[in-house]
What we know:
Oligomer: single chain
Helix content: 25-40%
CATH superfamily: Glycoside hydrolase/deacetylase
Bound molecules: zinc ion
Amino acid sequence: MTAAAATMLNAFCIDLEEWFHVCDVETPYQDPATWSEAPSCVEKDTEVLLSLLDEVDTKATFLSMGWLAEKYPELIKRISDLGHEIGCHGYYHRLVYEQKPEEFREEISTARKILEDVSGQQVTCFRAPGFSITSDCFWAYPILVEEGYEIDVSIVPASRDHGGVKDFSPVPFVMETDAGALKIFPVSVMQFAGRTIPFSGGGYLRLFPLRMIHYGFRQTHRRGLPVMAYIHPREINPTQPRLDLPLLKRFKYYVGLESCERKLRSLLHTYRFGTVSDVLHDFGCTDRKQYRDVDSRQTGYPAQLAK
Ligand SMILES: [Zn+2]
């Protein structure tokens, strides 16, 4: 292991949702009224993740849906009591770019209240479902600040099928919005075969061989940056119920389920991980100039930030 791998504190996030909370595809579970009757895996799968984290004495950030916290308050309380950070993953797991600003405000405000009530923690970290803050909906940022959030972990600085902001800064930075400052911690990306690609979570973690994921960690650490890694509880459960999805979506959601827990254990044993808040504290995150690199010409924000 290199010195950087031994010392750099990396962020580990769990996006807390059910096996049927998939994005951007028709399923029998579009309507939240169907969710309570659906089979549930989230408690069992989360226990596996909690054990993995306990193995290496590591705290993580659990970004939960408000709906989930209402349905399983004891799960959120248990995660919080174990010393993990609780963040918000929307209320109904709706894509941000499909909402109107006032709907978004309602989602993140209601979810935050429930998460704080249930966990007893102040909830300041947000991740958009499906990483769906794109350059078309940067209006979400001042709303997040107004609703009490201090950190956003929603951006993937690469092209994706939904979400993703190409050419966005991969470096954590402070964004000045009209409503105040918001720390932005993007998902990690690496340069590989001439392309910018994520490697440290979700389908990428399940699809790529471990040596390629380690390559991404090494490349990120060489740039002096912490890695932002993430997983969903369903991704370590090969026996989860399967949705009847189109071929590409089926591949995306179900590839590598069998090897995911092994890969995750290897990463957790190789690198140092902590909560998003701990990593940003460790990293400093005081750079207010990075936003000039953001490709967001439609938003009006870069002009204000560049001064
Ligand atoms: Zn999600």
